[in-house]
Structures are given as structure tokens and as C-alpha cells.
Write a sequence for this structure.
DNA sequence: CGACGCTTTGACACAACTCAACAACCGTGG
DNA sequence: CCACGGTTGTTGAGTTGTGTCAAAGCGTCG
């Protein structure tokens, strides 16, 4: 069933609305302009005008926001199949930065092209709206995590959500995945200090819930973690919408 | 310039793309089905299927998420001109609840109708995508507030952002506005305890930065607050996008 | 080998939470 | 009219989660 052109993006959007051949063609075309970024390079800089959106093909990204005092809040870690900077295009300027956490391959699309496509292919426009909505929902969940969960619960939740997202694109098994995250960046994602992340990881390890080392996460006790985190599945792409 | 039909919604979307007469007509039509909710009533229930979106005409709403342990995280307080539940329509089911913080008047639009309109009027679809993006950007800012600001900084930021939003729809002056918020709900918005909000409010009062009582906020020292919060203006609707 | 990035640990400080009590302000009903 | 419960705001005392600072361990790589 999979062909070279059946991209992660197409699979993702197709889970929202069934797409026509034309629309599939556009999606293939959209992703023709491949660019590589080295680990650490910036794809998007906070405060700058947004010229293009990216569709991540391989590797990990990191969306974050810097504060005047030097603090950093990680908003999201884009993984293959995710859009980067789509929101920024609409808002004209980027409210956050995005950098490559590993070497990454992206497809770049100029802003005017994106707008033109949304105009000509409203169903694709709706699919992008859906995708942006999904991302927004995850940010909301992240907000809940930081606002109303302890650091330990939040970390458990973070790992569970990441596992599920990675599983959707075939980058995680039920119980483990590889990642480029260090304790410092996890701290900035959870809004706690690096030292505290270390302590929490030790606790989770000692309670045989999960291990995180050498770029690998092993989930030792899934139901225990879910209970700790109060986790509910993402429930993506259950059934398609009846879109005229 | 303003007519009866030049709604807050139309004004808001028009700041993204210049709209045709047809499109304006659709927006008027969209908002014909007015419904009133009493204070405390639920507009949207977390976990339920989303049948309709609402455009808030008057009053305050409250978007929030409940946790299994009874905790509550407020995501956003919709004010007149805001969309409620647009994201939920796309995602089929609501990931959060929304209740009326005061008596409210909304315009209700059935989900299929929204989808139909996005299909027929791609420019309106893009405008809605823009609106959802804006909301998402505010949630991100909220995330930063909770994750990387102290409770005091966060509260200052919260008040400043609210003031700016209210000013856009004529519900706040430079230095004050009325509101239906109590300390408990502010606590759930900032992710801290009710008691702590009280103490922080006292500090802000004692430092002559702001007062909040009897449903009224008075900003006593704008630049002092901005400095404390590390606040940057929302920068909405600077100039319109060149949308073909 | 030394330098560097990342992790781990300890000691201490502080922000924020919990529990508890009380005050002020309603609207309601006897 | 006052007594009453309910809601919201205020304050204090003690506890706990998390932050800060500092030091050391341990890989990797030039």
C-alpha cells in the first residue's frame, strides 16, 4: 500500500478527510523541496517574519520560547509527519523558535504557496486547520501538565504522550523508543529545573516505572505510569469527518 | 462605519483578510442563531461530541479541563468576539469544557454548517484557521507563563494580556476593567492555589502595581507591571496578509 | 592527556501548598 | 427584623516540593 510518495503527512491528513487524487498530488508536490538542517541549527527564529512552513520528514525538532531573563520553555518536540511553522505563517511572524534537535530533513513550502493552496483546495485547507487544531490540543494538554500536575506526574505524562505519537509514525514500540533528549531540555519542557528532572528520573527508575538513559526510554510498567499520570490516550484519527 | 451587522467577529476576521460583501453576508448569517446561557451553565462538556461552535456576543466564558483527581486547569477566558469550540468541531470531540462565567449571549453554528462554509468560502476558512492559530498562540504564551514565570510574574502577565484583549473589544480602558473572576478561578488559571493568589494580590497591591476587588481591576503602574511580567504586546492585526 | 557535555548527588533556601480559622458579604426564610 | 448558611476573601503556622549552588563522576573526542 505504501509508496514512496505516500508520505507521513498524507497519511496524517488522510485520517481527517479522504483525499482525492488531485489533492494527494498536491501533497506530494508540496513536499518536493527537501532541505537538510544540521543538529542545533535554527529552522525558525522567534520574532522574525515567517517565510515558510516545514514538514518534518526525519529527525527531531524542538519548538521553544525564550524569556527576557534567559529562561526557556519548550512547547513541543516535532517528530516526522509534523508541521512546523504553519501557525506562524498565518500570524505573519513567529512567536517561537524551532531548532533541529538532531540532523533533520524537512520539506519547505513558501508562505504564499501555502496560502494559494488553501485557497484553491479548501479541503486541504480544512485538513491543515484540523492539523493545527490537533497541535493546539496537545499544547493545551501540556498546559494542564505543567499547571496542575506535579513534576513527577508531568514527566510520566510527557513520556506516555511522546510514546503514543512516536508509535503513530512507527518510531516506538509498545515499551520503548530512542530519542535525542537530555535532562536539561526535558526540564525546559516540563518547566522545572534540570536537577529536579534528574531526581524524578531516579524515583521513576527506583519504582520500576521507566528508565531513560543513553538516548533510550524503556517503559517498565505501562499501567503504573498511566495511573500516575492520569493519562488518557490521544485518540487521533478514530473515524473520518463527514466533510462535504 | 459600524452597523448593526458589523459584528466583533467580522471586525476580527477582517483584520486578517479584507472580506468581500458575500463573505460579510455569510458572517452575518452565521451569527443569526442567538442563544442565551445563564451564569454557571455549560456550553461544552469535556469528552462529549462537539455538535456546534459558538461565537460569543456578550459576557465571559471559561474554558477549562478537569483532572481525574478533581483538579481544574483554566485554559482561557473567552470574551466577546471570541470563538468557542471551533477546534472541537474539527477534532470531533471536545478535549475541554466551557461554561458561562456570567450570563452570556452566543451565536451557535452547527458543525456541518461550519464545514460547509469552509468548503464554499476558502477565504473564510483561512480566516478561521488564522483565528484558531491566534488562540493557539495565546495558549502557548499561557504555557510559558505557567512553566517559566513565578506566580507573581504570571499573574501580572495574565492581567496585562486580559487588559489588552478587552481593550480590543472596547471592554477595558487603559487602566481598568470589570470582570467576573474570583480568586479561586484565577488560581486555576495560573496553576497555583487559591490562598497563594490572595497573597500575591496583596503584594501587588502593597507595591502599588494593581488592585483587584469587587469585580474591578485597576492598573496602578503599567510600566512596573510590564517590567515585572516581561510583557510583550499581543501585536494582533498589524497589517493584513496578502491572500490571493 | 585535558576539555567538554552530561549526569548524579548533597546541603540548604525559598516558593508554594495545606490546613485551619475567621471575617465580610450576600440572599433567604422564619 | 434578625438568624442562617453559603460564598468569597484574608491571615497564620507548619509542611513539602522544587530551586540554587556546588562539587564530583564519567563518557567522548580532539
Amino acid at each position: 500500500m505504501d509508496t514512496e510518495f505516500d508520505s507521513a503527512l498524507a497519511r496524517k491528513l488522510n485520517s481527517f478527510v479522504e483525499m482525492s487524487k488531485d489533492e494527494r498530488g498536491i501533497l506530494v508536490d508540496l513536499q518536493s523541496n527537501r532541505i537538510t538542517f544540521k543538529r542545533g541549527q535554527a529552522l525558525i527564529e522567534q520574532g522574525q517574519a515567517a517565510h515558510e512552513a516545514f514538514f518534518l520528514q526525519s529527525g527531531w525538532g524542538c519548538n521553544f520560547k525564550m524569556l527576557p531573563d534567559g529562561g526557556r520553555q519548550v512547547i513541543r518536540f516535532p517528530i516526522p509527519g509534523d508541521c512546523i511553522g504553519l501557525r506562524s505563517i498565518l500570524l505573519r511572524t513567529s512567536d517561537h523558535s524551532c531548532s533541529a534537535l538532531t540532523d533533520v530533513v524537512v520539506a519547505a513550502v513558501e508562505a504564499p504557496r501555502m496560502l494559494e493552496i488553501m485557497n484553491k483546495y479548501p479541503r486541504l485547507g480544512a485538513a491543515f486547520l484540523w492539523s493545527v487544531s490537533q497541535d493546539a490540543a496537545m499544547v493545551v494538554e501540556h498546559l494542564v501538565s505543567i499547571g496542575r500536575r506535579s513534576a513527577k506526574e508531568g514527566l510520566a505524562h510527557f513520556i506516555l504522550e511522546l510514546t503514543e505519537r512516536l508509535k503513530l509514525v512507527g518510531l516506538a514500540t509498545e515499551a520503548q523508543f530512542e530519542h535525542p533528549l537530555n535532562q536539561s531540555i526535558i526540564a525546559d519542557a516540563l518547566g522545572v529545573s534540570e536537577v529536579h528532572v534528574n531526581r524524578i528520573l531516579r524515583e521513576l527508575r527506583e519504582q520500576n516505572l521507566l528508565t531513560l538513559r543513553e538516548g533510550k526510554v524503556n517503559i517498565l510498567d505501562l499501567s503504573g505510569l498511566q495511573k500516575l499520570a492520569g493519562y488518557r490516550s490521544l485518540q487521533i484519527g478514530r473515524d473520518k469527518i463527514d466533510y462535504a
